[in-house]
Amino acid sequence: MKRLIALIAFALAAPVFAQEEQSSAPYAYRQLDDAAQEARAQDLMETLRCLQCQGQSIADSDAPIAGSMRSLVRERIRAGETPEQIRGWLIERYGDYVSYKPQLTGLTWPLFAVPLAFVLIAFFLLRRRFTTKGNGQ
Amino acid sequence: MSEHTPKSAPLAGRWAIWLPLALFLGFVALVIVGLYRPADRNVASALVGKPMPQFDLPAALPGRPGLDSRVLANGKPHLVNIFASWCIPCRVEAPQLGALAKAGVPIEGISVRDTTENLQGFLQQNGDPFQRIGADDDGKVQLALGSSGVPETYVVDGKGRIVYQHIGEIRPEHLGLLLEKLKEAGQ
Fold this sequence. Notes:
The complex is a heterodimer of chains A (137) and B (187).
Chain A: H1 2-19, H2 35-45, H3 64-78, H4 83-94, H5 109-134
Helix pairs in contact in A: 2-3
Chain B: H1 8-16, H2 19-36, E1 56-57, E2 67-68, E3 78-83, H3 88-102, E4 107-112, H4 116-126, E5 132-136, H5 140-144, E6 152-156, E7 162-167, H6 175-186
Parallel strand pairs in B: 3-4, 4-5
Antiparallel strand pairs in B: 1-2, 3-6, 6-7
Subcellular location (chain B): Cell envelope
Pfam families (chain B): Redoxin (PF08534)
Domain Thioredoxin (chain B): 46-187
């Protein structure tokens, strides 16, 4: 009887096994031994987007593809690559979308320039107002 | 200041008072348009139009060669299908891949984060259109190709250049476009 129940349980469990993703990525859930390297990897992972669960960083996500990305980041950091090289490698493949860190590009420069322009315009307007007053009008 | 200005100035001022409201309404309209426009959540590979990255994946199944990217530059266009046994939409696209294989299209597979046993079961159930299947057990080649999920299908021309990326399952209505892209890639 016990064997029969076990058999039935296994038969029911098989589809669950079949759905499972099995990643061999070594550093998906393992930190690097060198604490300084791990810190650098962690900082980078917090600014990279998980491509499956798109509001999360790969440091926060449990999606298997995020695990693959964490392992890729850690292995490359360990091999001596800089975080910005790894970010660049990913942007080459997925576009700016993969990175949460704003990049200064031909498309994004107005975001940085416009506030500066407003400050300058405000400065000139105020200066004119103050100098006219100063002239005793 | 207002005592010395001509009569037209207050009129202009009266109109200008509506300017912030108009700007605000314009902004609201922009937000509403953005909210209701259907969002495209696909992340397309930035490698379309560029050469396939170099990789050499081990065989996923005994008796079936793995996938070396050099094979893709053998002068003939290929389909490279990224799939997995755990992926439900991959079952949906299996008949379409079967039809393409029957039509003589060389289809190379990359199985992502999978096991031999699960893969064998999947191919038994859903048919096996693949010439080669490379095992991407840690997902590195998937990342190298700029693929953000499974299934995805790349059309690669005879020189090993990616000419088209299909994201998601291939449904019957996509076959025409894929065949057209393959034909273009063959020219």
